[in-house]
Amino acid sequence: MGDVSSPRLHCSILGSLEVRVAGRRAVIGAPKQRLLLAILLCHANAVIPSDQLIDSLWGETPPRTARKNLQVYMSALRKIVGDRISFQGWGYRISADREELDLLRFLELGRSGRAAVRSGDLATAAALLGDAVRMWRERPLEEFCHVRLVAAEVGRFTELFLSIYEDWVELEIELGRHVEALGSLDVVAARFPARERVAAARMTALSRCGRAAEALAHFEGLRRHLAAEMGIDPSPVIRQLYQAILRGDGPPPARLPGLAGAARPRPVRALANRLPRAVDFVGREAQVRRILDEPSPVTVITGALGAGKTALAVHVAHLLAPRYPDGAVVIPLRRHGVPRPAADVQREILEGVGLEITGVREDDVLASVWRSWLADRKVLLVLDDSPDESSVRMLLPGTTSSRVLVTSRSRLSGLESVARIDLDDLSTSECVEFLGRLIGCERVAADLPAVLRILRRCGPSPLVLRLLGARLAGLRHLPLDALAERLERTEDVLDEFVAGDVSLRMRFEESYAHPSWPHRAAFLALGTLDGPVFGHEELVAALDGTEGPGERVVESLLEAGVLSISQVETGAEVVAHSLSYAMSPLAHRFAAELGKDRNR
After folding, report:
1. CB under 8 Å to 382, separation ≥6 — which residues?
2. What is the dihedral of CA 100, 106, 111, 115, to 10 degrees?
3. Residue-range definition of the domain harbouring residue 309
4. Alpha-carbon span 199 to 205, nearest angstrom
5. Do 355 and 403 sit in the same domain of this protein?
6. Domain end marker among 502, 532, 567
7. Whole-model pTM?
8. pLDDT means per 10 residues in the chain (600 residues)?
């Protein structure tokens, strides 16, 4: 087909994989190329790490030439889709908009339809949601269902489809189109027999068509299925619907314009605003504005330990809170460095708003209650210090009425359809302003050279500056140049950063010293190198064998937020040897200390 920089493209994944270029169907015959394109399209506009792609193509035993083969496959795909596929230093992404990928158009129609519901324009809402439902072509990407990266996304797409379908079919019934709705309800209810909203919609439509006996029979089938497969009873809402039809009262009207929702419990208390007190905040104007203006319901804020991710999230959350009248809350996803199970988080919040869930034992049932509770609310969630993608996915709302801010040291590259903010170090001027707020602008201005020496020694980390400022505020007699000299000569520099019950060393130990941390061996290897900036070849050689091949270990440390790319030429895919990498000077010092302790 020839090399084309930007061909007119349309890709479909809400069924079998199909690609059309300039209106003509493109033939992608090689199975691995088809799989690669399917993975990229599932995660459109997100970076997929190269090691994840290699695992998907070859499993646990990739060939020695796997990375080169991956580049060849990507080059072949570029001849079809053009320069939409790009290399980002640690992985690949495909750029697409809603006119080029059916999934994105489907999501846009769903968002627009639900916005029309909230505004009370039910006819427009039904039309938009109906257009979204008709885009579904049954069993997306079935040929790749054995691949984890695809299967997880297909599960998410299916859940989104069902949620939008339920909203649409309830609207159709309430707008008097119950006869027409039954055609699709018969099919969807048979394929998803445990979906209570689908069952309730079919019972309602049957009853309004004068087929009450069939509606009651459908309830009995649902009851038997839930008992046999999950060991639970139907929800109180659908039992009430059954009783109403049995009495001959007919089904009650849905709660429009908020959409009915067959199993959406109502809390006895509001979540309310539970945001913590905002702390001193300096800079990050571009990032703050971007988050405030971002249309995506999920924003992921990443950066190294101490980069100010939580401070930024809380600062923005206070600005966003008025838009979310049903409450705002920060949810720590780790306790003392240990990840919290998503089910524990869900149970804590749901019980906190007064829902009776003591009888819910299965995690999937609890997750369904969680999504149902969030579905018709406008809530702001801050998921803080997220350990991995799965912990975030379990807590994301199924609808776009709520907003989620996620903070993590890892890039969480596997998360799809999210906006991303990667926090770099503060600029020198921002560091000076921040320290001035903590200890006084006059004191800082009086000895700027000493401040710059401190920054060179310790790095421009907000956490480090906050701890340093808290100490200096109580040591007004200590000249800044004396502190700079002490920091430069001391061997135990980490012990200088303590303020009350907050210790930098303790934070490092929680993050980097735990024996189960998967990057511990590589982190220790970094401590043996002269740093904190490393050349590519030196780094690959030092890390080779610590967790796998050196190139893949570097990528995993980039993903984990331990390393960052210091400089990279445009077109980095072919100049990897010219890359240089950096880590926090104090984290590098801690890695060196850990290595010495282990060798004693």
Report:
1. 275, 313, 314, 317, 328, 329, 330, 331, 404, 405, 406, 407
2. 110
3. 285-422
4. 10
5. yes
6. 502
7. 0.56
8. 59 92 86 92 87 88 90 91 84 89 90 82 88 88 88 85 90 86 90 90 89 90 87 84 82 48 41 78 86 90 89 92 88 86 89 73 76 81 92 87 92 88 86 88 88 86 86 83 86 82 85 81 91 88 88 90 68 55 89 74
